[in-house]
Design brief:
This protein is α/β, with parallel strands linked by helices. The protein contains 8 helices and 5 strands, in the order H-E-H-H-E-E-H-H-H-E-H-E-H. It has 2 domains: 33 residues; 253 residues, SGNH hydrolase (Rossmann fold), CATH 3.40.50.1110.
């Protein structure tokens, strides 16, 4: 073999050996890194209604099978879970219940990762819309659009005027306390399909003309959550495509959200165990974790 060719072979062998050494020495350091993970948010984060219940704080109706626990288990993260059912943006900086600290108290300079869903309870957006539209649907036997006719843009107006600025303030408060953390703000998976499904009325008694109205309301809320997240330097985890076909009208094993009636969760119109699992998996994918 010519000397020039021999030198090239030796150089390549040396470089390969060096790369292998670097790989061997780098892997343990990466594997030993444990994320300090704080989970904040409302009942969609808490997994309210999903068994088993976290008995350390019964008032928050938090599940040990919620998406924060799934994510932590799969990544080996050190989890601090302060999610709480019925939480609003104001509960990030003030006590939601006696003995329950403001959620932002759970984060600090050493926090690496924060996840949350928030905003759906502000102004009673979800609960008021579901109760109002469900009641109206029953009274009209599922016909027409009684909820839209009665409430018009009032829910949307409240989201723009009140929820959006409250979201920004809450996220800024979290960012101020944990400036080095990655913050993932999750959108809400679809509750209703985009179009009415007559077979679903017994489980989700919303009039046929109000189904797209409620769907559009949720889309609006998610868009505002996304806007506030991005303007606050957080990552938005979008479920508009991922949760399509997994709404509360779907069959058991397919749906991520339980219906208003005849569901399998303790809390209706909330994610079931499958939904919480899929929320965790989607978040991990978006963040490049696991």
């Amino acid at each position: 073999m010519p000397k020039s060719a021999l030198r090239r072979v030796m150089a390549a062998t040396t470089a390969l050996a060096g790369a292998l050494v670097l790989g061997v020495t780098a892997a343990p350091a990466q594997a030993s890194t444990t994320l300090n993970y704080a989970a904040l948010g409302d009942s969609y984060s808490a997994g309210s209604g999903v068994l088993p219940i976290d008995t350390s704080n019964l008032v928050c109706l938090r599940s040990t099978a919620n998406y924060p626990h799934v994510l932590a288990a799969r990544t080996g993260a050190r989890l601090t879970d302060v999610t709480c059912g019925a939480a609003q943006t104001k509960d990030f900086t003030a006590s939601q219940y006696p003995g329950v600290a403001p959620q932002a108290d759970a984060v600090g300079a050493d926090t690496d990762l924060i996840t949350l869903t928030i905003g759906g309870n502000d102004n009673g957006t979800f609960i008021n819309a579901m109760l109002a539209c469900g009641s109206a649907g029953i009274l009209t036997a599922g016909q027409g659009s009684p909820c839209k006719d009665t409430y018009g843009s009032s829910f949307d107006d409240a989201i723009d005027a009140k929820t959006y600025p409250a979201l920004k303030n809450a996220l800024r408060a979290v960012r101020a306390k944990a400036p080095n953390a990655r913050v993932a703000v999750l959108g809400y998976p679809w509750i209703t399909p985009a179009k009415a499904d007559p077979s679903c009325f017994a489980k989700l008694p919303i009039a046929s003309g109000d189904v797209p109205y409620v769907h559009a309301l949720q889309a609006h809320l998610n868009a505002v959550v996304q806007r506030a997240a991005e303007e606050s330097g957080a990552t938005f985890v979008d479920f508009s495509q991922a949760s399509e076909g997994h709404d509360a009208c779907q069959a058991v094993g397919t749906r991520w959200i339980e219906p208003l009636l005849f569901g399998q969760n303790l809390v209706p119109v909330h994610p079931n165990a499958l939904g919480e699992q899929r929320m965790a998996e989607r978040t991990m994918s978006v963040l490049g974790l696991g």
